[in-house]
Amino acid sequence: MRPEFTSPSSSSSSSADRRLNALVRHLATASTVSQTTVAFSPTSGFHGDSVFSHVVRAPEDPILGVTVAYNKDPSPVKLNLGVGAYRTEEGKPLVLNVVRKAEQMLLNDKSRVKEYLPIVGIAEFNKLSAQLIFGADSPAIGENRVTTVQCLSGTGSLRVGAEFLARHYHQKTIYIPQPTWGNHPKVFTLAGLSVKTYRYYDPTTRGLNFQGLLEDLGSTPSGSIVLLHACAHNPTGVDPTRQQWEQIRQLMRSKALLPFFDSAYQGFASGNLDEDAQSIRMFVADGGECFVAQSYAKNMGLYGERVGALSVVCTAADVASKVESQLKLVIRPMFSNPPIHGASIVATILKDSNMFNEWTIELKAMADRIISMRKQLFDALRARGTPGDWSHIIKQIGMFTFTGLNSKQVEFMTREYHIYMTSDGRISMAGLSSKTVPHLADAIHAAVTRMS
Fold first, then answer.
1. 244 with 411: CB under 8 angstroms?
2. Domain map of the chain by residue range?
3. Nearest residue to 275 via CA among 286, 262, 266
4. 351 an active-site residue?
5. Is 298 labeled as catalytic in the residue annotation?
6. What's domain 63-94+367-451's superfamily in CATH?
7. pLDDT tens digits, residue range 149-201?
8. Does 239 participate in catalysis according to the annotation?
């Protein structure tokens, strides 16, 4: 053993030396224990089965899986109509000019830092998002009856709202349209809500089953939560008329049903931001309460930035304040606080009148191109004499069209024409171009005539 060093110079020095020697002995012992632990670690040199061997391989996501299959196809004529993302006439992803401009402004601002945001996100972003969806002159905003929190795009906004409702609302069942976006039932179920459906789409007319919708909502228990697509219903592209929305509003308010709007396409459906928000504003105008999940993925092309907001409209300002305090308790353990970059882009554009106007022009151009693709596809099918009534293609609105093709026809089109879409026949009109419309029309014609 190493001898202890002692010095007669002072008692304090002797005390310090004793502590030093004690530390040396402790480290020597710890080193021995550490070496023993490593030598006999239960995972050291382990060659048996993984503790996760029992895990079953999950199926591909029905929507994102389409892109996986598309990427593996070597065909030069392949066409991906499954993904819900805008493409240019050349089939390329688009970054809006106004977004590029906003990013450059942010980059040039040397005062910007990368500190954590508050739990609810950027205050200016939340304020401007509420004004965009409810209207700048909304009485609910003026009376401070709205609380808005920044979330991770539309999906994150839905999840935060659903978890709040599962904790604090007296009804735990949410009614969703049949069909709806494939992620809706998963988001609500995992958040703790029970999911049931109401009739929405009529496969015979390829339009809205309005009578069935009213009957189903009329028979739901009082106070139930009801999911509503604000515009450009996904996947069908079928929306109620303004008169039908008013009937839906009256029925829901008479039964005290709680509206939960999913607004993923404001401005992207008709090209008009106010028009696409009318359904929500009708419900807010009557003074009642509602939830709104808002996304900037489509209308600003900020898909990968994950920018969204959840707004809760309450009957009084003090209620809204208390709701916000509880939303913080949902967000904090979920993602702590939201990312800064994408929301800063949105706030930069929304607060500047010139940039806002530039955005609306680019937004309308995207919407108009999709409308043009609908018309071109309809004309191409009619020119080929394709059996059936295809007028629903130009009657439906937004990014998606529910073609009415069945799973066998879809499989045929993928196999023979290398066209990829979800098995329910939903296609993304934004994935089409003037060059690819003839190829799709040929495939649909062949599928309908040979696989009917």
1. no
2. 63-94+367-451, 116-351
3. 266
4. no
5. yes
6. Aspartate Aminotransferase, domain 1 (3.90.1150.10)
7. 999 999 999 999 999 999 999 999 999 999 999 999 999 999 999 999 999 99
8. no
